[in-house]
Write a structure and sequence with these properties.
384 residues; alpha/beta; disordered N terminus
C-alpha cells in the first residue's frame, strides 16, 4: 500500500531535521563520507558531504553538511543541509531547506524551498508551482506555473508562466523578467521594475510596513491552534488513562531531579542512537521506530508536565474535597493556558518551555518503566 504523499513529506522532513543534528556524530565515525541505505526504491542518505549521483527509482531523503543532487529522482526529493546544490532531475515534487540553496536542475512537480539564501539559476526549469521562503531570494529560471516568495530581499529576472506573489522588505524585477500573469507585492515600498521587463497581468503594490506584524499574527494563530490541539489531547488522556497520568505526576513531583536528568538524556542520546542504528542494515527499522517515538515524546513531554503541574496544584486548591476527572481536566486547561502565556516571554519563556519538556519526557519514561515492572511486563490498560 502506498503511503500518502503528505505523510511521506512530514516524515521525511522530520527525519531530515534529526539527521542534520546527527551529522557531526556521523562525521566522527566516518569522516565526511556519505552513509546511505535503500528501503524499497527509496534512498536515505546522510553525512558530512552527501552526493547523489546514481538514479533513484523512488523518493530521495537526504541530509548533511552539504548535499549535491546530480542524479535523477523518479519520486519526491526531501533534502536538508547547510549548502544544497540541486543540479539533477526530480520527476515529482521537491522539498528542501538549508542555509544556502542553489537550484539549476529540472523539477517536474511543485517546489518548496526555505533557507537563508535561495537562487534559482538561469538553467533551472520547474514545471509546477514554486514557493520560496528565505532571507535573500533570486529567481532567474523558467517556471511553468505560479511563484510565491516570502523574503527580506527578492529579485526576479526569469520567466514565470503564472501569477507572482511576493511579501517582504524589497523586490526588484530585472530586464529579463517575463511574467505571463500578474505581479502582487506586499511591502513598504513599490517594487523596482527595470526597463525591458514584461509583466502582462500588471503590477499591484499593497503597502505593508515591514515591522513583522504579519509574521507575528501567523505565529500567534499557529500557537493558538497548537494550544487547542493539546487541550483536546490532554482531556482524552486524562479520561482514558487516569491511573497512568497520576503515575506521571508522581514521577515528576517526587522525583523531579531524576525526571529532569532522564529527559535531558533522552533529548541528547536518543537521536544519536537512532542515527547510529540506521547506519546498519539490520538496525535500520529499529532506528526509524526509535526516531518516531522520539518525535512523539517531545510534545507529549510538554503535555505530561502540564498535567503534573495541574495534579500538584489541584489538592491544594480543593483542600481535601473529592477530586474527579472533570476537575483534573479543568485544571489542565488552566495550566496549559498559563504555560502558553509564560512561554511567550522572551528568553524566560524558552527556558521554561525546555524545562517543562525535559521533565515531562523523563517522568513519562519513569512512569512507564514503573508500571511495566509492577504489572510484570504487561502494558497499561485504558480505564473502562
Amino acid at each position: 500500500m502506498r503511503v500518502p504523499r503528505c505523510g511521506w513529506l512530514v516524515f521525511g522532513l522530520a527525519l531530515a531535521s534529526i539527521l542534520v543534528g546527527g551529522t557531526q556524530v556521523l562525521a566522527s565515525e566516518h569522516g565526511d563520507a556519505m552513509v546511505s541505505r535503500q528501503l524499497g526504491n527509496d534512498l536515505f542518505a546522510t553525512g558530512g558531504e552527501v552526493r547523489l549521483a546514481d538514479e533513484i527509482y523512488g523518493d530521495a531523503i537526504a541530509a548533511g553538511g552539504s548535499v549535491t543532487l546530480d542524479s535523477t529522482v523518479r519520486g519526491d526529493a526531501v533534502i536538508a543541509g547547510g549548502q544544497l546544490a540541486l543540479r539533477g532531475t526530480v520527476d515529482e515534487d521537491l522539498y528542501a531547506t538549508g542555509g544556502e540553496i542553489r537550484l539549476s536542475g529540472h523539477i517536474a512537480g511543485t517546489t518548496r524551498l526555505a533557507g537563508g539564501q535561495i537562487d534559482l539559476d538561469r538553467d533551472s526549469v520547474i514545471d509546477g508551482g514554486v514557493s520560496l521562503a528565505g532571507g535573500r531570494v533570486g529567481v532567474d529560471g523558467r517556471l511553468g506555473q505560479y511563484l510565491q516568495i516570502a523574503a527580506g530581499s527578492a529579485r526576479i529576472d526569469g520567466q514565470i508562466a503564472g501569477d507572482v506573489e511576493v511579501a517582504g522588505g524589497e523586490l526588484s524585477v530585472g530586464p529579463g523578467a517575463e511574467i505571463e500573469g500578474s505581479l502582487t507585492f506586499r511591502g513598504p515600498e513599490p517594487p523596482t521594475v527595470a526597463a525591458g521587463a514584461q509583466i502582462r497581468g500588471g503590477v499591484k503594490h499593497i503597502e505593508e510596513k515591514h515591522d513583522g506584524r504579519v509574521l507575528r499574527r501567523m505565529l500567534g494563530t499557529f500557537a493558538l491552534v497548537w494550544l487547542v490541539g493539546w487541550i483536546v489531547v490532554g482531556c482524552v488522556l486524562l479520561a482514558v488513562w487516569p491511573g497512568f497520568t497520576r503515575s506521571v505526576t508522581d514521577a515528576a513531583t517526587r522525583r523531579f531531579g531524576v525526571s529532569l536528568l532522564t529527559g535531558l538524556l533522552i533529548l541528547v542520546v536518543v537521536p544519536v542512537l537512532a542515527v547510529l542504528l540506521m547506519i546498519t542494515l539490520i538496525g535500520f527499522p529499529l532506528g526509524l521506530l526509535l526516531l518516531c517515538l522520539y518525535l512523539v515524546m517531545l510534545p507529549l513531554g510538554y503535555l505530561a508536565s502540564a498535567a503534573a503541574i495541574g495534579d500538584w496544584l489541584l489538592p491544594r486548591m480543593r483542600k481535601g474535597a473529592a477530586i474527579a476527572t472533570r476537575h483534573r481536566v479543568l485544571m489542565l486547561l488552566g495550566v496549559l493556558i498559563a504555560l502558553f502565556v509564560v512561554t511567550r516571554i522572551p528568553f524566560v519563556g524558552g527556558i521554561v518551555g525546555l524545562l517543562v519538556i525535559l521533565t515531562g519526557m523523563g517522568s513519562l519514561l519513569l512512569a512507564a518503566a514503573g508500571r511495566y515492572g509492577a504489572n510484570g511486563g504487561a502494558a497499561a490498560k485504558p480505564a473502562s
